[in-house]
Design goal:
alpha+beta, HIT family, subunit A, ten-stranded antiparallel beta sheet, four-stranded antiparallel beta sheet, 6 helices, globular, binds zinc ion
């Protein structure tokens, strides 16, 4: 496959709108793909990620609890968006600025049970999964100085872009810091310089405590009651799940640590035990309210490298969960403005009130 192209192209007008051109993805089987139905089978004979079919995937890189009796397994992605097979040097010509698509792309088979939803996994299993993410991120940052960011994400369900039904997540080690993360770093740093305050922690504090009533200056009538506590979905000792006040996706939920920590890699095993419980309960709420959520989740953490040290006080790592209940339309693509048909306050209330046991 000598004509495979993997490069990040920078939009010369709006540099933040870069595109990853990765033609190998187009080679994925498509015509023969059956529409994905979220089933209840624990094992499917022809599924490459099911037990007994290990020879249908590249070799195991990491497994838990052990290779023979694995419940979680990491393998290389057969159709990587980025690859460590260096092809070309980064070239720029005129307005065409290109960064070589160097990196790694791995698949985490989240569970040996084909159809299991994350909220049905044990807390211990979810903890192991998030530990494996952490340890693999650490490993990938350590392998190559050209890797600027390691993104962990999960697509669950066809509406979320999952092309294999077996529950799995992915790790992409990239030669650039993704624009979403760069924007968060930039704006939180500006906020810190202005107010000497971590904006993420401030958001969490507000979510926990802030309540206010705004009165009309002339009539004295109540104009708006603000109860920011209404955005809290779930809370454990060390973490909190919040429905953001302004979120792109109707049922989007974000999980933050309740302690200052910019780097996910610094999370302890005990932290992740608590985190796993929060993820399990939050996902159960989403599933019960939406009815079998199809979603993307991804981890945002401070990138590695000395140039990011100045962000350590202003940033907080987090998990963003984006259930996919609608498809972005021309309006969203044309304006960059996402439309939400449910008010975040209402969504938060429904998620908080739903029965989960
Ligand atoms: Zn399977
Ligand atoms: Zn984020």
């Amino acid at each position: 496959m000598s004509n495979e192209l993997r490069e990040i192209r920078i939009n010369p007008i709006v540099p933040t709108e870069s595109v990853l051109v990765s033609t190998a993805r187009g080679l994925r089987p498509r015509k023969d793909e059956k529409p994905l139905v979220m089933g209840t089978d624990s094992r499917i004979a022809e599924c490459p990620f099911c037990k007994g079919n290990e020879d249908k995937t590249p070799p195991t890189l990491v497994s838990w609890p052990n290779e023979e009796n694995w419940s979680i397994r990491i393998v290389e992605n057969l159709f990587p968006v980025l690859s460590n097979k260096q092809q070309t040097q980064s070239l720029s010509f005129g307005l065409q600025h290109v960064i070589d698509g160097y990196g790694r792309h791995e698949v985490v088979i989240d569970h040996d049970n084909h159809s299991i939803h994350i909220d049905h996994m044990s807390q211990e299993h979810i903890q192991a999964l998030f530990k494996i993410y952490r340890d693999r991120m650490q490993f990938l940052y350590g392998t190559d100085a050209r890797i600027k960011y390691v993104l962990v994400f999960k697509n669950f369900g066809p509406a979320a872009g999952a092309s294999i039904a077996h529950t799995h997540s992915q790790i992409v080690a990239m030669p650039v810091v993704p624009e979403n993360v760069a924007n968060e770093l930039y704006h939180s740093h500006i906020h810190f310089q202005k107010f000497n305050q971590n904006i993420f922690s401030h958001l969490v504090d507000e979510a926990l405590t802030f309540e206010a009533t705004i009165y009309d200056r002339d009539s004295g009538e109540v104009r708006r009651k603000i109860d920011v506590g209404q955005y809290v979905i779930e809370k454990t000792k060390r973490f909190i799940a919040i429905k953001p006040f302004a979120s792109r996706f109707e049922w989007e939920v974000q999980i933050f640590p309740l302690f200052p920590q910019a780097d996910y890699l610094e999370c302890s095993d005990e932290d992740l035990e608590d985190f796993a419980l929060l993820v399990k309960r939050t996902m159960r709420r989403l599933n019960n309210v939406i009815g079998g959520a199809q979603y993307n989740y991804f981890l945002h953490s401070i990138p590695h490298g000395d140039e990011f040290n100045k962000h350590r006080d202003s940033y907080l790592w987090h998990l963003e969960i984006c259930p996919r209940t609608s498809i972005p339309t021309g309006f969203e693509l044309g304006s960059g403005l996402f439309v939400s048909t449910v008010s975040p306050e209402d969504a938060a209330k429904r998620l908080r009130d739903v029965e989960i046991n």
